Amino acid sequence: MITKQLRIGTGFGAHSTAADVLSGIDLTGTTALVTGGYSGLGLETTRALARAGAHVIVPARRPVIAARALHDIPGTEVHALDLADLESVRVFCERFLETRRPLRILINGAGVMACPETRVGPGWEAHFAINHLGHFALVHRLRPALASGGARVVSVASSGHFLSGIRWDDIHFRTGYDRWLAYAQSKTANALFALHLDSLGADRGLSAFAVHPGSILTPLQRHIPRQEWLAQGWVTPDGEPAAGFKTPEQGAATAVWAATSPLLDGHGGAYCQDCDIAEPAATDDMLIGGVKPWATDPDAASRLWELSGRLTGLNALDQ
Ligand SMILES: NC(=O)c1ccc[n+]([C@@H]2O[C@H](COP(=O)([O-])OP(=O)(O)OC[C@H]3O[C@@H](n4cnc5c(N)ncnc54)[C@H](OP(=O)(O)O)[C@@H]3O)[C@@H](O)[C@H]2O)c1
After folding, report:
1. Ligand 1 in reach of 126 Cβ (< 6 A)
2. How many C-beta neighbours within 10 Å does residue 4 have?
3. CATH 3.50.50.60 corresponds to the domain 18-231+246-312
């Protein structure tokens, strides 16, 4: 059954923080994994989950930087993982599985945005490879740890998906590279990934959600020149975040809520924003958000799953 994209009325909203949505929730004894959990929204996600009692695994492309960022957060551990390198994903997952720890929360938050054209692995476009294929491989390989009932996977997507569906005829931008379309495609892929994963996991007690965190100034914008921040309307002339932007604590809230809220039981596969299920997008304004039809299309989700399995050589969850 496909979840309807209709708000359910949660009592939370755009101003809620990750700490707000965890109020009254005790995660003691829960193991969570947050990719990108040492920067921007991921750092606030890790902090909030750990404060609520979870033990948080943070796989990091730059483990030394990650350890420094997390040094004052008890209940966290850092391991090396580069999502651009499927061999690194394999090694990380095998080591994690050896510990035989069940994983109840997996938040796929790591990502890159609007990079100059970059090729990874066998020539894959970097946004698609890191934001989508790396997480696809991670979830596949961690499947045995996600087997216990009630596990949730959260895909951190974006209203950046507004700009592009999956470019079936040229996923890797063999021609006409555009950094915003590349980001957009990868964020549509994040949403479709959650949709199909949820449908496969439904009878095993595994559910999956996609979230748009809001607009937040973080190191994600590192590839965009400052003058473009102003031109895009992200900052005021004195460099302050523009109206409608969230703090990192608010930006972490929807992913944390999707990973933990009982209100989402029975709504697997939903695309969420502002700590509720998102409505279909009524405009092209990304600040208002909502979800476009190409990011909730089950046929596209199934097609992307099959393609991703072929590209990575992994299709275990289908069997
Ligand atoms: N900020 C926003 O306004 C916004 C809006 C919509 C959606 N999002 C989404 O939210 C997520 C988090 O973004 P953020 O704003 O918190 O950005 P951020 O501070 O730049 O965090 C991104 C994280 O991803 C990690 N990462 C990048 N490439 C990686 C790789 N190859 N392997 C492993 N990790 C890698 C980065 O590690 P390094 O630091 O080592 O590079 C960093 O820890 C992203 O998926 C983004 O698309 C953000």
Report:
1. no
2. 12
3. no
- Asked whether residue 64 carries a pLDDT value surpassing 90, the answer given is yes
CA 147 to chain centre: 20
Residue nearest to atom 43 of ligand 1 (CA): 36
Q: Where are the domains of the chain?
A: 18-231+246-312
Task: Give me the pLDDT at residue 319, please.
Answer: 44
Phi, psi of 182 (to 5 degrees): -65, -45
Q: Give me the pLDDT at residue 239, please.
A: 86
Q: Give residue 46 CA to ligand 1 midpoint distance, Å.
A: 13
How far, in Å, from the CA of 28 to the mean position of ligand 1? 27
Per the annotation, the verdict on 38 as an active-site residue is no
Distance CA 56, CA 51 (A): 10
What is the tens place of the pLDDT at every residue in 65-116?
A: 999 999 999 999 999 999 999 999 999 999 999 999 999 999 999 999 999 9
Q: Decide if 12 contacts 38 (C-beta within 8 A).
A: no
Residue 1 has pLDDT above 70, yes or no: no
